[in-house]
Amino acid sequence: xxxxxxxxxxxxxxxxxxxxxxxxxxxxxxxxxxxxxxxxxxxxxxxxxxxxxxxxxxxxxxxxxxxxxxxxxxxxxxxxxxxxxxxxxxxxxxxxxxxxxxxxxxxxxxxxxxxxxxxxxxxxxxxxxxxxxxxxxxxxxxxxxxxxxxxxxxxxxxxxxxxxxxxxxxxxxxxxxxxxxxxxxxxxxxxxxxxxxxxxxxxxxxxxxxxxxxxxxxxxxxxxxxxxxxxxxxxxxxxxxxxxxxxxxxxxxxxx
Length: 256
What we know:
This protein has helices spanning 13-22, 40-47, 50-58, 102-109, 133-148, 158-167, 179-209, 221-224, and strands at 32-34, 64-71, 74-81, 86-90, 118-121. It is an alpha/beta fold. Strands 1-2-3-4-5 form a 5-stranded mixed β-sheet, sandwiched between helices. α2 (40-47) packs parallel to α4 (102-109). It starts with 12 loop residues before the first helix and ends in a 32-residue tail after the last helix.
């Protein structure tokens, strides 16, 4: 449930879920609810869920859901924003989702079929290695929480906000850079994400020492089989069954 010191270790669903539970949120901001990380099929089921679609039809919700998705051993994140009628999609390479992705089809048939709703790709290429995709979607989560608490929330400007937010931290979009400029920016991005990884590990270690981690083992197929080493025990399931996490709260006041 916590990270090792090896920077090449990929994040698993348990680690991301535990860190989501630790993420600080502005009490005065619109509510943000985290769904347990899922695979492509699980993300599709979440986007097509009656609860999520009914909230969109109702039109009064102002909050959002955060859903981390691992497909093809690569992490992505979806921000379902009711205030803007947008599902933002981000992954560290700045690419778009595959057309055959199940969650894309589910979006088109559910939220995407409602008036004004769209799927927007945040095209920021910031990942410059082959192992930090999980950390980048955690960074995106932190950016989302600050966006939701800002005056820009509701203006459909998350992509621009995120690029500025990252630039202020020394991170650049490398997709349009060349030569030495790209090499230098890529190195700075790597240094930043290693610092973020270390900070995440520290958070998880501190929570483990206080016996306050929410989940104790990975559940997604990409990770569960190897969860039994120093950082987990595959024989110990999470405290909460993954299928129950479509509905994070029955309290309407706590829902987006």
